[in-house]
Design a protein that fits this description.
The structure holds two protein chains of two kinds. Chain A is an alpha/beta fold. Chain A has two domains: 213 residues, P-loop containing nucleotide triphosphate hydrolases (Rossmann fold, 3-Layer(aba) Sandwich), CATH 3.40.50.300; 64 residues, Alpha-Beta Plaits, CATH 3.30.70.3100. Chain A has eight helices and 14 strands. In chain A, strand 9 and strand 10 form a beta hairpin. In chain A, helix 3 crosses helix 4. By secondary structure, chain B is mainly alpha-helical. Chain B has one domain. In chain B, helix 2 crosses helix 3, helix 2 crosses helix 7 and helix 3 runs parallel beside helix 8. Chain B is elongated and about 60 Å long. The chains are: A alpha/beta, B mainly alpha. Chains A and B meet through helix 1, strand 6 and helix 2 of A and helix 1, helix 6 and helix 7 of B.
Amino acid sequence: MEPKKLILQFEDVDKRLGKKQVLSQVKLEVYTGEVVGIIGANGSGKTTLLRLVTGLIYPDRGSVRVNGKRIQPGLVGELPERIGALIESPAFLPNFSGLQNLKMLAEIRGTIGMEEIQNTIRKVGLDPTMKKPVKTYSLGMRQRLGIAQAIMEEPDILLLDEPTNGLDVDGVEMFSHIIEELTAKGTAVLMVSHQKEEIDRFCDRVFQINQGKLTLLRSKKERKWQVVVSSLEELERVYQLVSSFTMTERVNGDPTGICSGEWETAEELYTFLERHQIQVRKVRETS
Amino acid sequence: MITLELFQSLIRNKWRWLITAGILFVVSFFIKLSLNYSTVKQMEASLIDFIVEGLNQQFLVIIVLPMLFLFLITDTLLRDIENGYVSLLFTRAHSRFSWLIAKLISLFVYANLFTLLCFLIYLLDGLLLGLPFSEVWAHQLLQVEGQVQISPVMIILSSYVLHVLGLTSLGCW
């Protein structure tokens, strides 16, 4: 596995929009292969952070670096390369099909062909041969198309603004697979949302943005674990040890419960419980 | 980027183009009135006179045509930002400058399309009014001395170029 590389960096970024100080002294580092989440209320500056990375706006103070290169302000300043973004709901050309829309966008960079576009459309669960114009798409279909345009050129950095908005259960599952696949290849994902569940589910590190300040909420991804033990006494001891532990239905007649925590593997949790003399029958990650 | 910009503007502004064509069609009927007022009575105005008057009549050139063109292009720069399309473009464009260049080129293309639209509507309206086609000038009062010798086609072409350059400059400004 390749060592993680710093790919996106905010250095003491200040940004004022109108009279409002939207960002204040923001410091953030994102490494390859990780998913960083930012949670915050509406209007707290989450989308502004993403816009700064695309080069659409630039900081009043401080700098934003992508792949070590500072995003230059002004008209002639180069824009960062190899970025995919789904910021708010993009208004695709309404009279064209999804495939035609993506084809026109792909022609700007010219790095991928028709086959890659069609494969990406399939990956998000849409049919590339569908002739329907985008204006007839449902909200979920548009969101899937938005995800497709963001990932089709295999970006190094993926910027996502409330990415599961409008997606059904299958859509969220599809999105989860895409994120896993991309991060395994080394793509860094910066995701913002006002929904804590969305951020908790997908992100390794989580920040909160409040009055322009970024604060770290969690430095590791919380996973859900199913723990099967040999007796009710053991279950009681797990309950006392792990605060998030809740009892569930027995598995094969054995007392069982579910907890969440930052353990990265089942072995890690198993060792942790064994250290506290708890007789564990089985530990497995659950969704 | 340029192709996308052109497609985008035409599709998103199709209602504006239809409204503009409608207004031009209505306005073009007044050109005939203007011609009746200014033409030397002994000579009947031709189709060429009608088109040239349409492209040169002061009120049209100074007020109506620029207003209609501005109506068409008014959100050229802001549209991408308002509808969220800009993030799709900026993550693919090499620089902000290339995005701006695409906008400026599209302005030039629209100035051409708009002038062509004026020309076609005047032509259609002239035909509807039953004006005769003639390659010689009937409309003496439109021209300054010396222009009478110039071919009407050349006058129309130079008017066309002037309109395109003027409207593009207006759009850039």
